[in-house]
Amino acid sequence: VVGDVLIGSGVVSYMGPFTAVFRDRLVTEWIEKCAEKKVPCSDRFSLVDTLGEPVKIRQWNIDGLPKDSFSTDNGIITDSARRWPLMIDPQMQANKWIKTMSKTGLATFKLSDSDCARALENALTFGNPTLLENVLEELDPVLEPVLLKQLFKSGGVLSIKLGDNVVEYNKNFKVRHRPS
After folding, report:
1. Residues pairing with 57 in the sheet
2. Which of 47, 80, 102, 174 is an S-S bond match for 106, by CB 3.0 to 4.6 Å?
3. Terminal CA-CA length for the chain
4. Which helix H or strand E contains 179, and what residues bound it?
5. Distance between CA atoms of 88 and 124, rounded to whole angstroms?
6. Are strands 151-154 and 157-162 parallel, antiparallel or unpaired?
7. From CA 144, how far away is CA 32, in angstroms rounded?
8. Which residues pair with 109 in a beta bridge?
């Protein structure tokens, strides 16, 4: 269990942007390193077996996440990571999955929208899941505190600075963003 959780943590923290082949190669190296250092771990690592929740994964599949192991691993990484995920999604599969999964209360907007700041402020305050679409190479600096989760207490309330405004932060808030 110890080595599998260690490898799972590494996969969630570092492997999101990489291909399945590269992930497999690196995990094999990590298993060898664990054996060298006498850290007990499985001979064949599976992120699904280590961090996956079968009921949640089944719901993701119902919501449109493809059933292949790479997509399932990506779902686990997206769900487990401390940082907000950036999804490069040319076939729009992740976009469809997020929209279906977050049927109610999903705030969807683009940085080019005139009411982008207001939509984000509302999502932060009310704890709505948020999908930021068509993200380009550069992000508006107003998003930095949100992406870095720069939270603080103001008057005993969890808050975040959004531009010139201090906004109450709801712990249910989630953000997903997809480049164009």
Report:
1. none
2. 102
3. 40
4. strand 174-179
5. 24
6. antiparallel
7. 38
8. 132
Q: Is the pTM of this model over 0.85?
A: no
Q: Give the torsion through C-alpha atoms of 158, 162, 165, 171, to 10 deg.
A: -20
3-state secondary structure (DSSP) of residue 176:
strand
Q: What is the pLDDT of residues 89-98, one digit of tens each?
A: 888 888 889 8
50-71-10-26 Cα dihedral, nearest 10 degrees: 110
Residues composing the chain: 180
Query: Tens digit of pLDDT for each residue in 34-84?
Result: 999 999 999 999 999 999 999 999 999 999 999 999 999 999 999 888 888
Q: Which two tokens stand for residue 16?
A: 């999101």
Count CB atoms within 10 A of the CB of residue 64: 15
